[in-house]
Design goal:
328 residues; single chain; alpha+beta; 2 domains; 28% helix; five-stranded antiparallel β-sheet
């Protein structure tokens, strides 16, 4: 069974993936039911504390709660005694036969954690969630790629049959202000990744077209002489703190002025710990914010990369669309 903590972890992907010896969610909770030190036991089991998770075991000891024998019994106990923040409509604890997905916050950032039994690890939903390392693979293919995940489609479109996807996962996303309520990937139809820089540079009036913050920022990071998106991603890696607001991008003629405005917010060199990986069909940045918030990430890839890694691509799109990879 896998345990995943999606949090401001000091790792490039801001998550931690652990293999748990128990085969089922129920077995793991039953084993922890009578622990004398719930907080210490959870920390030892899961390689660090998990905000609020120890509460169910502490309540079990204090209130002499019966050890659950079935998933239904465990569900009732979790709903009553597991501490989660902000669960106003009762949807932050989601337990089924083979997975437990929980959302909460630690008063600083939103976080989610997951127990996923091997039999439930559907690759098109959890391949990226379970990916443990930097970077994602860089190979590409001429095969087809399709998905059923909601995305934000940008207009005007390119002329080709491909598509470029932009996925940001950061702690205070300018579009939503949180790290879990993301709006979904930004899609640029009709393009491959090598064509994206020129398309962004030539697109007029993206604000009037309703382009979201990430699309406008990416356009502002593209230089007039850039042949591909690589230099823009390297500039993003040098941005200090939070994003500049790329307001006022109205016409192609103004692009250079906006680009220079963004350049003023660049540090002299990549921030300590920041990771950059550039390939013809995927560009990846894990930008180190600070020792408290850790990293935020930006992945820009096209259907050529996605065709070679369809499960990673579909699950990454899903990661940007909903905190729960099993949400329908």
């Amino acid at each position: 069974m896998y345990f995943v903590r999606r949090w401001r972890d000091e790792s490039p992907l801001s998550k931690q993936v652990i293999r748990v010896a128990d085969a089922t969610v129920l077995e793991w909770f039953r084993r922890g039911w009578d622990q004398e030190d719930p907080d210490g036991w959870v920390g030892d089991e899961l390689d660090g504390g998990v905000y609020g998770l120890e509460s169910i075991f502490a309540e079990a000891r204090e209130l002499h709660l019966p050890r659950p024998d079935t998933i239904d019994e465990l569900r009732g106990l979790l709903d009553e005694h597991l501490w989660v923040e902000g669960d106003d409509d009762g949807t932050f604890i989601r337990l089924d036969e083979h997975t437990l997905r929980v959302r909460t916050d630690d008063d600083e950032v939103d976080l989610a954690y997951y127990f996923i039994e091997d039999v439930a690890a559907a690759p098109d939903r959890v391949a990226f969630l379970l990916w443990d390392g930097w970077p994602l693979p860089a190979g590409a293919s001429d095969g087809a790629f399709d998905h059923d995940v909601p995305v934000q489609t940008m207009r005007p479109a390119g002329a080709g049959p491909d598509c470029v996807y932009s996925v940001r996962t950061c702690w205070q996303h300018p579009g939503t202000g949180t790290n879990l309520d993301l709006a979904g990937a930004v899609a640029f139809p009709g393009l491959t990744l090598p064509e994206l820089a020129g398309h962004l540079r030539d697109a007029a009036d993206p604000e009037a077209l309703g382009w979201p913050h990430d699309a406008r920022l990416l356009r502002a990071l593209v230089g007039l002489q850039d042949g591909d998106i690589g230099p823009a991603m390297e500039r993003f890696a040098r941005l200090g703190g939070y994003d500049p607001e790329p307001a006022g991008i109205d016409t192609v003629a103004e692009h250079d002025l906006i680009h220079q405005r963004v350049l003023k917010d660049l540090a002299a060199k990549p921030l300590a710990g920041t990771r950059v990986s550039l390939a013809p069909h995927i560009a990846q940045v894990a930008r180190h914010i600070d020792s408290f918030f850790g990293f935020d990430q930006w992945f820009v890839f096209d259907t050529r990369w996605a065709a070679a890694h369809p499960d990673l691509a579909r699950s990454l799109l899903r990661y940007a669309a909903h905190w729960d990879p099993f949400d329908e």
